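Dear support,

We are seeing what looks like truncated structure output for some complexes. This example has two components. We would appreciate it if you could run it in full and send us the complete token output so we can diff it against ours.
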Amino acid sequence: AQSVTQLGSHVSVSEGALVLLRCNYSSSVPPYLFWYVQYPNQGLQLLLKYTSAATLVKGINGFEAEFKKSETSFHLTKPSAHMSDAAEYFCAVSLRRTGGFKTIFGAGTRLFVKA
Amino acid sequence: GAGVSQTPSNKVTEKGKYVELRCDPISGHTALYWYRQSLGQGPEFLIYFQGTGAADDSGLPNDRFFAVRPEGSVSTLKIQRTERGDSAVYLCASSALAGGGTGELFFGEGSRLTVL
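Here is the complete output from our reference environment:
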């Protein structure tokens, strides 16, 4: 069975500081991995995805994530936080099934950015 | 439309009532998903459709919940005899499943259900 664990329900950083949001997954087969972001009062949108090509994946708004198979991790980073990055971030694992994909989400990490 | 559309955006109902939530996916997307998101939680998988058929309904919490997609496009999530614990935001997402598909989901803004 697939599962996702996000370490830390809340992360607070200062503007300009490094952002690190942690995600570990469990999967019996190589998964597709995603980070989605949810801004206040908006729907979830894709930030970036890993689909078995390059292990370092770049997404929108300067975010990137590195797939580490040995650690079963897919942590999200951004070198310098901006106030507009304040949102909730969800890590997700997707496995191909008959008839499509089944995607399971982590519990989410809320990012606070201090001025 | 250009994106996934969900109606109503907000629904307030009384305990025991019947509720329908509608999802109109991105045109051409063959896969459609329903998730439930409670306050402070991640989206919880309910069901997904490939075309008209439910490919996996293992996330439906009990037999009060049912979903249909009769023509392979619009889907309706139906909740009978609503309970206060059903209060949540119900999210719909669609996905293209061509040969190169990766399971990327495109979400609507959700239907917030409040059961009094």
